[in-house]
């Protein structure tokens, strides 16, 4: 293929790849369970269903609050919602005794980036006309008639979060919440910070049930299986080891799947028609200009502190518990000490020795992969040593 066409095809294949991790399955099972409970509470049998079809006003028994799916940009929220569409029962048609055809759809995904107000949203949902309460009633009737047991609202982050825009987003979410159908809205951290400034009544309705979709751990089976799936997309070109290189590759993208896909594309671009993509090519891709924005995010996540959280609200969940944030900061501190000590050793090596060192690391058992030159008997680094090693590490990233 011509290079640009090959890059496009590769990126699309990487974006479409989906490995159902333990976390994914747990979330999907919960959503299915909630949808099932909704149906149990609102559909007691054929006679009751047909009778309610002809009632002037349909009431839906509410069982849940609005649910939020949040996480870092590129962690896989949209992919998870698309997976839910595949897991829920497919659309089918039934025929009532009086000959009426009724399409049954178990769930519906609504893309929010082009919607500007609640009336537009509800008109799209029910295909009706009018505004306000009339549209709400039409939407409830359609939801009951068609058996819609779950609604997903995605891509809210594409609306500019000014004061006016955040008020409109809140109104659209409350409009969906008023239908009484279980629904999940996907939101990035920036949007959650904005919604957290809304008044108490709105926060209670929209922020009561928040699920954070987090990156897989670098030493987890899920992360290794995800890398193995990506490797299979181009097995003759991708020569990295999903087990031995798992921790190192996680460090290059912080576990964000979109960033990992971008790294693979950048690395492939440099070897198109004449080479392979291994850990060395991925490391060079990490230092490339095309990856600069993602690299900044990765470094901020790896060295997350109170000061970084103050500057980068798009990288942390305001509803995460204080204990979780403290534990994350402690783990990051330990990783910094290991990484800086390793970086200072590598910086002092000649180029040939660095290559030998990299080859030796890849030959280590999977358990030790990514933990390089760690001396467990070594005393803790002083503040001055940490500062010096930090500078060496940054110089190494800039200089390649």
Tell me about this structure.
55% of the residues lie in helices and 8% in strands. The protein has helices at 3-16, 22-42, 46-53, 77-87, 118-126, 132-145, 163-177, 189-195, 200-206, 221-231, 246-253, 257-271, 279-286, 292-302, 306-311, 322-348, 351-362, 383-399; strands spanning 67-70, 92-95, 101-104, 107-111, 150-154, 183-187, 209-212. α1 (3-16) runs antiparallel to α12 (257-271), α2 (22-42) packs across α4 (77-87) and α5 runs parallel beside α6.
Compact overview of the structure:
30% of the residues are buried.
Annotation keywords:
alpha/beta; 7 strands; two-stranded antiparallel ribbon; 400 residues; single chain; 5-stranded parallel beta sheet; elongated; 55% helix
* Beta fraction: 5-15%
Strand line-up in the sheet with most strands: 4-5-6-1-7
Q: Radius of gyration in whole Å, from Cα?
A: 25 Å
Coarse structural class: alpha/beta
Shape: elongated
Low-pLDDT segments, ≥5 res: 364-380
* Helix content range: 55-70%
Order of helices and strands: HHHEHEEEHHEHEHHEHHHHHHHHH
Overall average residue pLDDT: 82
Give the number of helices.
18
Number of strand segments: 7
Major β-sheet profile: 5 strands, parallel
- N-end to C-end Cα span: 30 Å
